[in-house]
Amino acid sequence: MRRYQVFVGNFGSGKTELALHFAYHSAVKGENVTLVDLDIVNPYFRAAERKKTMEAAGIRLIVPNFAMDNVEIITIDPAIYSAFVGDMGRAVFDVGGDGIGARALGQYKAYFDRIPKEMMDVWLVVNPYRPLSSTPELITSLKDKIESASRLTVNGIINNSNLSYETKAEDLLWGYEIVRQAAIDSELPVVYTSGTQAVLDEFWPLTEEKGLDKKYLGEPLPIDIRMHRDWERFAKFGVEDR
Fold first, then answer.
1. Does residue 131 lie in a domain region?
2. Which residues span the domain enclosing 213?
3. Vertex 112: Cα angle to 109 and 115 (nearest 5)
4. Beta-bridge mates of residue 124
5. How would you class 135 by CB atoms within 10 Å of its CB: exposed for 0-12, middle for 13-18, buried for 19 or more?
6. What proportion of the chain, given as a percentage, has pLDDT over 70?
């Protein structure tokens, strides 16, 4: 059966990076992959910016007709319905920002309701270094707002603690404590701790040394950074698909 993965989280959480990771990883395995860019909140770091490279990798991209526009009313794009058609492959949804962004997802609740629970992941991506998710209380509040707006239930947390290229293993240790408490408060599992391979190679031995609870670590998820931004080139040439 087709697998559905929905990535939600606030601005700067890294959910687009993770959505791309799972889409590319699945495409490499030969799966039929569709990525739906439903991020209406952030116009600067969007999966849609990588359209050419995704198409080259065999990933079908759906970008709603309101994407990149200054719209006040969320409209239903018929193209998205096709993501719910078919029995095989994977559909990945990159959903914008917060409760407001998650409203775009709520438009398709009737279609999500048809999916067997075991075939759908709704994962909250958390970076505690971002102001709106810097405490367990803020994280659980964000989860509640997203669930209310999207009318879907979050069933897992991804710890994506990072300071971009300056991230060290100690930064993941700090983030672990915040995410652990948020997972306890929300009664959700931590499914992954993500980061570059180099950072995870430093961090994972520390989890044993310090006796961190594996229940709140999940699996290590090494990712490549695809949504990087060279600000000098951005200022000169704008957004490039590279």
1. yes
2. 3-228
3. 155
4. 8, 157
5. middle
6. 82
Model's pTM, two decimal places? 0.87
Q: Is there a domain that residue 28 lies in? A: yes
Give the C-alpha separation, 9 to 135, whole Å: 14
CATH code for position 41: 3.40.50.300
* pLDDT score at 237: 46
As for how many domains the chain has, the answer is 1
Given a contact cutoff of 8 angstroms between Cβ atoms, the answer to whether 37 and 66 are in contact is no
pLDDT in tens, 42-72: 554 566 677 788 889 999 999 876 544 444 4
Residue 233 lies in a domain: no
pLDDT of residue 38: 85
Residue 20 phi/psi, 5° resolution? Answer: -65, -40
Question: Contact at 8 Å (CB) between 19 and 35?
Answer: yes
Query: Which pLDDT score, from 0 to 100, does residue 193 have?
Result: 98
pLDDT tens digit sequence for 165-204: 899 999 999 999 999 999 999 999 999 999 999 999 999 9
**Is 206 inside any structural domain?**
yes
Look at strands 190-195 and 219-222 and give their pairing.
parallel
CA of 136: how far to CAs of 126, 143, 211, 217, in Å? 10, 11, 21, 15
Sign of CA dihedral 169, 19, 67, 106: negative
